[in-house]
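User: Hi! I'm working on a homework problem where we have to compare a predicted structure to a textbook description. Could you give me the structure for the chain below?
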Amino acid sequence: MIGRAEEAARIRAGLTPSEGTAVVAVVGPGGSGKSRLVREVVDGLWCDLSVVSDLRGVVDAVAATLGIPVEGDADPERIGRALSGRAGADGPVILVLDACERAIDAVVACVPRWRGAARLVLTTRVRPPVGLLVEVGPLGLPRTHADAVTCEAGQLFVERARAVRPGWTPEPDELPAIAEVLRRLDGLPLAVGLAAARLRILGTHQLLEHLTERFRLLSGAEGSLQAVLQASWDLLDPEERALVERLAWFRSGFELAAVEALVGDPFTAVDLLQRLVDHSLVRAWEPPGLHGVLWYRMYESVREFAHRQSDVPSCAAWLAERGYALASRSRGPEMVPVLEQLALWRADLEAAFEEGRAHGDGELAGHAALALDPVLKTRGPVRRRREVLRQAVEVGGPLADEVFLTAIDARAVPPDVARLERIAGAEGPVQPWGLRALGRDHGDRCDYPKAVALAAEAVRLQPQEARNHAVHAELLHESGRPLDAVVVYQKGLEVAKAKGEKRYEAGILGFLGILDQELGRGHEARAVTREAVDILRSIGDDRGAALYTITLGELALEGGSGEARACFEQALVGLVAVGEQRWQAFARAGIGMAEAYAGHVEAARAAFLEAVARAREYDEATLCAVVFCWAASFEALHGGLVTAARLVEEARGGDTPRTTASLRAATAALEIGRALEAKAAGDDVGWALHRSAAASLLSHQEGWRTEARVIGRLLEPLVRDAALREVDLTCAVDASWFERPGEERVSLATRAANRRVLARLLEARRTAPGTVVEVSDLVEAGWPGERIVPSAGASRVYTAIATLRRIGLKDLIQKKGKGYLLRPDVVVVRV
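Assistant: Happy to help. Predicted C-alpha cells:
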C-alpha cells in the first residue's frame, strides 16, 4: 500500500476487542481505495453488498458468505447465531460488509444484533451513524512540481505507469504536467491508476490535454470513473442532486453562506450540506487563516459529473457582490481573514469577472474586479491585477469611477485628467479619492502647489481616511517640504492605528523611514522600516513587505551595512513569488550595487545587466531612471564608458524631479571615468576638464535622495583620489541668474542681452571646454534677428562682457583671440 498508514493503524486499533466486539466504518468517496485498504489490513469473512439495497438482500448475502441456507423471511438473529459459532481462539470472527452504501439503513439495523457475535467492518460511501469512523480520502498531492512523483499520489502514478511501461521514469520537464494531472484527479487512487494506465499510448503532456474528457479517458480493467460517480449520484435524492448541481459552479470551494443563499433557509442548508458530506461528495476543511470557520470543496470529478447532468446555474452575481462587500473591509482590523477568504474565492471570482466581461455586464465585472484587487495587489501576480482592472475599465458600468480610480492606483491605465477633474468636482463617496488621484497627477507634472492643495482638500473632506493623509504628505515631501510631510504622516499614522488599518500603518511607517534617512536619521529610518516590514508580513501583504525590504536594502547600502545584499535578495524572492516584475529590476540593481561595494566586479556586472534588461521591459520612468543611473555609475568606474554614456542617455529619457539627483550623480560618475581615462592617456587637459565637470555635478548634495546618495558613496574613494575642486560658479540652465560661493545670487532676468551672451558662453563651455566664442557668434546670440554692423556689434559685446565681469564674473571670463570664453578650469554647475 502507498500511504494509508494512519488509516490502517486506526482500523487495527478499532478491531482490537475491548468489551467483546467492535464496529469500524471505513468511509470515503468512490475510487478512494476503501476495499483495497481493508483487504490489506483485515483477515476475515468478506461479503459484497454492492448490488444489495434492502434488509432481505443483506441477510441473504451474509448467509451465503457464511455458507448457511437461506430460509424464509430475513432473520438477522439467525445470522448472529451463526457468527457466534465462528468465534475462535482469537475471539469473534471479523465480517467485512463491503460497498454497503445502497443498503446502509438495513446494515445499520443489523449492527446491534451482530456486534456481540462478530467484529464488523463496513466499507461505504455514505457515513453510517455507528461504530468507529475511519475516513479514507485522497492520497497526498504534490506541493510543488519537484515532488510530483514523490508524493503519495505521485508514487501510485509511477507504480501503475511502470506496469504498462516497464522502467518508465519521467523527465524533469514532465513533472509540471504530472503534478497538474494528480491535482485535477484530486489524488483519488482509482482515477490516478486509470490515468497512469493510459501512458501505454499517451505521453504525460497528451494525458493532461485529454483530461478535458476525463470520463471517456478514465476507464479500464479496474473500473470506470463514470460508473463510480454514477453509482454515487444514484444514492442522492432529487433535493440533494439539485444542490450538487448548483454548487458545481464553485471551483475553489464555498462557505455555508453560499449554500444558504442557494437553498434559502439556513437550517435546511445545514441539513443538506451535512447529507452531501455524509455521501463523501463534499469535503470540509478549516482554512489556515479562518480559525473556527469550516469551508467546503467538491471533488473535481464530482463537479465535472454534475456539470454534465444539466446546465449549472451561475452563482457569479452572488459571489461578486459578496466579494465586493468583503473587499471594502480589507483595510481594517479584519484584513487577514478577509484576504484569506477572498484568496479562497480567487478562481471563482476570476470566473465571475470573465462572465461579466463576456456579457458586457459592467456591474458584475466591476464587483468581481474590485473583489479580486486586494488579493492580486498583496499576493500577485501584479500583472494580472493590472490586466483585470484595465479590462474592467473598458467594460464600464455603475462602478466605473471606482474601478477607474483603482486602476490608476495600480498603474493599469493612464490618468484621464478630464475624468479625474469630473470625479474630484462632483460630490460623492469617491470624490476624495478623485482629489488624491488628481493631486498625484499634478505632482507627476511638477505642479506641486496645485497637487498639495488638492490632497489637502481630500483630507478636509475625509480626515479619518489614512490614505488621504499619506498622499498629502507624499506630495509635501516631493515639493521640498520634508518637515511638513513628517507632521502630516504622523497624523495619518494616528488615524491608521485608531482604525486598525495595518497596511496603511505599515505604508506610512515606510515613508517615514525614507524621510528619516533623508533628514540624516539613519538609525530611526531602519527601525521604522523594519517595523513596517514586520507588520506587512503579519497580515500577509507579501508584495508590500518585499517593497519595504528593498528600502531596507537601500538604507543598508547608504549606511555601509553588509546586510544590503541579503535584503535585496530577500525582496527579490518575495517579488518573484507575487509576480511583481516591475520592481524586480530595482531589486537586482540593488544586488549589483551591493556587489560593487564589496568589490565583486563580475557579480555586480551580471546583476546590473539583468536589472537593465528587466527595466527596459517597463515604462516606469522613475524606477527605470534609477536602475539605469546605478548601472551607468558602475560601468563608468569599471571601464565601460560607452555603456555608461548610453545608460545615462536612457535615464535622461525618464528623468523626473525625483530622479534629477540620481542623474547628476551618474553623470558625475561618467565624468570621473572619462577623467581617469584621460589621465591614463597622458591627456592633462582632458583630466582637468572632466575632473572639474564631475566636481560641478557633485556639489550641493544636501538635497539628494537616498538613490543618489548610494551612487555618491560608491564614488567617494575616487573623489578623494581625484581631489575634485569646489564649485566656482552656479548658474540657471537658461542663465537667468548666477551665484558665486559665499555671494548673493545675481539675476539677469531684466538683462536679456547679457543673459543670452552668458548662455552662449556656458553652452560652449559645456560642449567643448576651452573653445573660444567669436564676437560675431556672440552678437548673433545676444541680439538675435537684428542687423548690426560689425563695429557696433563688437561694441555691444564688449559692453555686455564688461557688465558681466562687473557684476560678478570678472575673473571667470577671458578675452582670447577674436572672442571670449569661460575659463576651462572653472567648475560650473547649471541647475
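For your comparison, note the following. The chain is about 60% helix and 5% strand. The longest strand covers residues 118-124. Good luck with the assignment!
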